[in-house]
Design a protein that fits this description.
heterodimer, A: 422 residues, alpha+beta, three-stranded antiparallel sheet, globular, B: 110 residues, mainly alpha, 4 helices, 45% helix, 5% strand
C-alpha cells in the first residue's frame, strides 16, 4: 500500500493507491440543528435518480434517526465494531485540536479501515475492512422513525392502540446523508476492475457502469454504505452528486455551477454545498472567504462524519447541540467541544455565513460581509448577544454577485388614513 | 438481523433501549429548534405550529415533554432576541452568462 496524508487524522495512512487530488473538491456542510426529517431531500433525489425498476431499495440521499436508525440498519455500529475487533481499545485520538490545516483535530492513533485490513484480512487482495449488509438491513430505510405498528400477520391494518405506544424519554437527532465523495474512497480502493473513479475537475466519485461487473466489493468496502447493488442490471450504483448541475451543464443552471437536487430541495435550509480548492498534498488550499472553508477551517463548526474510518469524507456536519458529547465525539471526532462552543456563541461573521444556507441554488465560491450598525445588545440565556445590521454578499464562479442578504430592523409606518388611530 | 423477529440479546438491536440523556436535553432541543427557525424568519405562530405538529417528531417530542406553556415561554424568550430582525434577500437578476451550445429544446445533448 502507498502512504498518503489524511489531514482529518493528522497523519499519513496506508491506501492502496497513490494520492491524486482534484483541482476542486465537491464538499458540503449540513447543519443538524436545523433538520426536522421532512425527507424532502430524500424524495428529491429519489424522484430524480432512483425511480426505476431494480432501484426500489436505493436511497442515495436519506435521513436517519440517530442513535436508533440507520440505512442500512446499524451501518455505523457494525463498522465501528469491526474496527474495535481489529484493534481492541486502541481506536483513540491523541493530541489536541489546533489551527494547523494538517492537524486540525489532533492525531488519530487507531487503525483506519485500510490499515485494519492489512492486519486482519486474507487474502492479500482484500484491501478494505468492511461487510456486506443483508437484504433485511437495506429494507427499512427509515426504521425507527415514526414507526406505526400493525398486528403481526394482519396486512393493511394498523394497530388501533399504536398511537399509545410508550414514548422513550431520550435524545435523538436526524442525520441526513449522501455519498461523501471521499478524498480516499474505500469503494474505489476495493474495486478489482478499477471501475470506480474520482473526477479530477470536482472530485466526484462515479461508477463506470460499462466496467462494473457487480462483484459488490465496493458495497462491502464503503463504510458509509453509500454504494448500492442493483439486482436487475447486476451492477453497482451510487450518488452521482447531480454532476450535470455541479458542472453547470444542466439546462436549468444557465451555465453556472449549481447545487445538487437534495441541497436545493431542503426546506429546513440546513444544507450548503460547494467546490473547495485542494492543494497538491490533499489538504484544502487556503481560501479564506469560501463559505465551506470558513465553516470547516476558520470557525471550525463543521466536522467530518466518522473521520476515524480514514476515507477523508467531504461531508461536514454542524453537530446537534443537545446530544451527549461522548456520542458526538465518536461520530465527529475531537473537534466537537470547540464546534459546539463556537456555534452556541456565534460571532458576527459566523451569523452572516449561516445566512448563506439555501439563499440560492447556485454554488457560492466566495462571500463578503459588509458591516452595519449594531441594532441589539442584550442577554439571552445568560450570555451577551449582539445583533448587527450586516449584509452578506455571495459571489459565483465568475466572481459575479449572486445575492445579498441583510439583517434589518423592520420599520413599521402607519398609513396616513390611520395616522391618529390606535 | 431479522426485522420481524428481533433477538433481544443482540447488542446491535437497539429496539426499546433508552440511551441516557441529561435532564436538560428536551429543554436544549426546544431552544435549538426555536432559535434556528426564528433566525430563518418563522413568526411565533408558525413556530408554535412546528412544535404542535406531530409530524415533526423531534420538535413535537419536546412539546410533549415540556408542555405547551413552557414551549410558548421559550418561543417568547427567543423572539425577544431573534424576533426583532428580519432578513432581506436581494437576488441579482438571473441572466444566462454562458450560452450553452449543442443542447436541444428538451435539454438533452444532440
Amino acid at each position: 500500500m502507498s502512504q498518503v496524508y489524511n489531514w482529518q487524522l493528522g497523519r499519513e495512512m496506508s491506501y492502496p493507491y497513490e494520492g491524486k487530488f482534484p483541482d476542486r473538491q465537491f464538499a458540503f456542510v449540513f447543519n443538524i440543528n436545523r433538520c426536522i426529517a421532512c425527507q424532502t431531500c430524500t424524495m428529491a433525489c429519489k424522484s430524480t435518480w432512483t425511480f426505476s425498476k431494480g432501484q426500489e431499495h436505493m436511497w442515495w440521499a436519506n435521513v436517519e434517526t440517530k442513535p436508533y436508525g440507520g440505512y442500512p440498519q446499524s451501518w455505523d455500529v457494525k463498522i465501528l465494531e469491526l474496527l474495535h475487533e481489529a484493534n481492541p481499545d486502541r481506536q483513540r485520538w491523541n493530541g489536541s485540536t489546533s489551527d494547523d490545516l494538517k492537524t486540525p483535530y489532533g492525531r488519530f492513533g487507531g487503525k483506519t479501515i485500510f490499515e485494519a485490513a492489512e492486519k486482519t484480512l486474507q487474502p492479500a487482495s482484500s484491501r478494505v475492512l468492511g461487510y456486506l449488509p443483508s437484504d433485511e438491513e437495506w429494507n427499512s430505510p427509515n426504521i425507527y422513525e415514526d414507526n406505526p405498528v400493525g398486528k403481526r400477520g394482519v396486512p393493511n391494518k394498523l394497530n388501533e392502540t399504536g398511537a399509545e405506544l410508550p414514548v422513550h424519554s431520550t435524545w435523538f437527532f436526524y442525520l441526513a446523508r449522501i455519498c461523501n465523495h471521499c478524498t480516499y474512497p474505500a469503494c474505489l480502493a476495493a474495486c478489482p476492475r478499477k471501475a470506480i473513479y474520482k473526477r479530477p475537475e470536482d472530485g466526484i466519485v462515479l461508477v463506470d457502469q460499462r466496467e462494473c461487473r457487480g462483484y459488490r466489493k465496493c458495497v462491502e468496502a464503503c463504510p458509509y454504505k453509500k454504494v448500492m447493488y442493483r439486482g436487475n442490471t447486476r451492477i453497482a450504483e451510487k450518488c452521482v452528486a447531480c454532476y450535470p448541475r455541479v458542472e453547470g451543464t444542466d439546462p436549468e443552471s444557465n451555465g453556472q455551477p449549481m447545487e445538487t437536487r437534495c441541497m436545493a430541495a431542503c426546506i429546513g435550509q440546513m444544507r450548503l454545498q460547494g467546490l473547495v480548492k485542494m492543494d497538491s498534498e490533499g489538504t484544502w488550499a487556503e481560501d479564506r472567504y469560501n463559505p465551506l472553508y470558513y465553516l470547516v477551517h476558520v470557525a471550525k463548526v463543521a466536522l467530518p462524519l466518522y473521520p476515524q474510518l480514514g476515507t477523508a469524507p467531504n461531508g461536514y456536519y454542524i453537530p446537534p447541540r443537545w446530544v451527549p458529547k461522548a456520542y458526538l465525539r465518536q461520530m465527529f471526532g475531537p473537534g466537537v467541544e470547540g464546534a459546539l462552543e463556537r456555534y452556541n456563541n456565534p460571532d458576527r461573521e459566523l451569523l452572516a455565513v449561516l445566512q448563506l444556507f439555501r439563499r440560492s441554488h447556485l454554488i457560492i465560491f466566495r462571500y463578503e460581509v459588509e458591516e452595519g450598525p449594531m441594532i441589539y445588545e442584550g442577554t439571552y440565556r445568560g450570555r451577551t448577544v449582539r445583533i448587527y445590521n450586516d449584509t452578506v454578499i455571495a459571489f459565483g464562479k465568475n466572481r459575479q454577485e449572486l445575492f445579498r442578504t441583510t439583517v434589518e430592523e423592520p420599520i413599521h409606518v402607519r398609513d396616513s388614513k390611520h395616522q391618529n388611530s390606535i | 438481523m431479522p426485522y420481524l423477529d428481533p433477538d433481544p440479546s443482540d447488542p446491535q438491536n437497539l429496539i426499546g433501549v433508552e440511551v441516557p440523556a441529561g435532564e436538560e436535553t428536551h429543554l436544549e432541543m426546544a431552544y435549538v429548534f426555536a432559535e434556528e427557525f426564528a433566525r430563518l424568519g418563522f413568526d411565533d405562530q408558525r413556530l408554535l405550529h412546528l412544535f404542535r405538529n406531530p409530524f415533526y417528531r423531534s420538535a413535537h417530542r419536546t412539546f410533549e415533554a415540556l408542555g405547551e406553556e413552557k414551549i410558548k415561554s421559550i418561543i417568547q424568550e427567543v423572539f425577544l432576541v431573534w424576533g426583532r430582525v428580519r432578513l432581506v434577500d436581494r437576488e441579482v437578476a438571473k441572466e444566462p452568462l454562458v450560452q450553452l451550445e449543442g443542447l436541444n429544446q428538451n435539454g438533452g445533448k444532440r
